[in-house]
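Fill in residues.
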């Protein structure tokens, strides 16, 4: 590429090198397209650098310390000393290995890498501004474009992320010292994952949530073990409140977070606690984790004719096309669910459609995972969703407390639940809460993708002793002949 005012061209321009963008670039390169990938920050995007990977690294590290300190029942007595700097160095090493791998894979697939910020000039041209003094900018003409700019944390009034005590998830994952106390605003998946991390590091954690329970959108039976485990870790919850402001404590260290009662009409069920007066919470830091919003406002999309909805998401069809036929959008910027693997799947489809392949996106077997303690994983339809879709359903469930392997790990909370069509036995959906739920859900996603029945899952011999036997037994329970739990 030539820096300056020279215009160059490319078959496929991809803006954003996160899991959606870099996967699209690599797949397009494999399909012999000329590809240019523009990234303004770091290859791998938020997921690899500031989200999925570093958070899971710290979840694993803190789990190791917590399990070692809590294994007296196994005859193990330990008091682990946590070296936060060493933990962060290890986490950063994992991130560096993955992000450098992304760059190498892109280059190996003949993807042209371009650092800078892209803005659309028209429906076939972008202007890329390069960071650094005197770096200038350049124009690129494209035949097809893929927007993969991802999302950013939502900021709430009076809690600016530039303020030293106020953290977003990225800042929380890079702290140099463990805070003595922390208020987490938001009990969604990010808030709950990080609340557990800091609780296991010894921080006094209070979670502030405007609704009446944790993890909105998940069934109560899935959330219950997570809430109980969090309470056992010493995490306090204040439901029915919204954070309104914060201020320094006069003459004392730390800050005071002020919360007001939330509008109870916004709650989604019977409140565990009714908020009726202002709440003040003292802490060293406050983490704001109320959700994420698409990064679509920096692209001058209107100059290319690309439309967004009222939340800033780019609307697409089943082939990842926007309203402009040769411009595609994938990943978080293209809407819910905001999942890295969903973005990667969309990126592959977009590249294949551009190459003339008959590809389309199928969300039927798209899994979702929350890496709380214990983990939650779902795929397909819930029992109520299946009923709303007109199915007569049958369900099967197997508790991990009846799993020999779960008992030998010391982690037997939770269960596997399968939802199937009562008439023909086809698996419609599944949910898991418990150890390794994020891994176990893949088998059930494959069952849905392949159109497998309960009989198919139940008759597949599973290794003993393993956690995966719980999947087999849940299918057997739905059929009425589970061996290691009572049948319904």
């Amino acid at each position: 590429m030539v820096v300056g005012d020279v215009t160059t061209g490319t078959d496929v321009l991809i803006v954003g090198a996160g899991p959606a963008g870099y996967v699209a670039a690599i797949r397009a390169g494999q399909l012999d397209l000329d590809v240019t990938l523009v990234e303004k920050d770091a290859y791998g995007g938020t997921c690899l650098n500031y989200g999925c990977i570093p958070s899971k690294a710290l979840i694993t590290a803190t789990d190791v310390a917590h399990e070692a300190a809590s294994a007296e029942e196994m005859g193990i007595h330990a008091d682990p000393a946590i070296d936060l700097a060493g933990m962060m160095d290890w986490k950063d090493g994992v991130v560096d290995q993955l992000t450098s791998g992304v760059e190498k894979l892109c280059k190996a697939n003949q993807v042209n890498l371009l650092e800078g910020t892209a803005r659309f000039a028209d429906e076939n041209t972008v202007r890329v501004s390069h960071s650094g003094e005197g770096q200038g900018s350049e124009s690129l003409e494209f035949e097809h474009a893929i927007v993969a700019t991802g999302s950013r944390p939502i900021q709430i009034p009076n809690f600016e992320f530039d303020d030293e005590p106020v953290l977003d998830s990225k800042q929380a994952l890079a702290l140099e010292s463990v805070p003595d106390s922390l208020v987490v605003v938001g009990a969604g998946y990010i808030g709950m994952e990080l609340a557990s991390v800091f609780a296991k590091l010894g921080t006094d954690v209070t979670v502030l949530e405007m609704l009446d329970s944790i993890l909105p959108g998940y069934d109560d039976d899935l959330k219950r073990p997570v809430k109980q485990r969090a309470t056992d870790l010493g995490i306090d919850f204040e439901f029915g409140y919204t954070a309104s402001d914060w201020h320094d404590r006069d003459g004392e260290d730390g800050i005071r977070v002020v919360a007001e009662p939330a509008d109870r009409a916004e709650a989604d069920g019977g409140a565990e606690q009714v908020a009726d007066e202002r709440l003040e919470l003292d802490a060293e830091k406050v983490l704001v984790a109320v959700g994420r919003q698409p990064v679509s406002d920096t692209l001058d999309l209107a100059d290319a004719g690309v439309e967004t909805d009222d939340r800033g998401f780019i609307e697409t069809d089943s082939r990842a096309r926007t309203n402009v036929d040769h411009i595609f959008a994938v990943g978080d910027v293209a809407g819910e669910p905001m999942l890295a693997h969903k973005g990667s799947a969309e990126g592959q489809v977009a590249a294949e459609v551009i190459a003339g392949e008959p590809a389309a996106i199928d969300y039927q077997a798209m899994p979702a995972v929350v890496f709380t303690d214990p983990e939650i994983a779902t795929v397909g339809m819930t029992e109520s969703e299946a009923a709303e879709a007109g199915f007569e359903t049958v369900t099967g469930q197997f508790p991990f407390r009846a799993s020999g392997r779960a008992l030998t790990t010391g982690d037997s909370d939770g269960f596997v639940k399968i939802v199937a069509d009562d008439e023909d036995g086809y698996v419609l959906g599944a949910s898991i809460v418990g150890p390794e739920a994020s891994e176990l859900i893949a088998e059930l996603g494959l069952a849905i993708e392949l159109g497998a029945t309960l009989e198919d899952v139940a008759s597949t011999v599973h290794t003993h002793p393993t956690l995966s036997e719980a999947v087999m037994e849940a299918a057997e329970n739905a059929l009425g002949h589970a061996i290691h739990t009572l049948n319904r």
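The CA atoms of residues 54 and 92 lie 7 Å apart.
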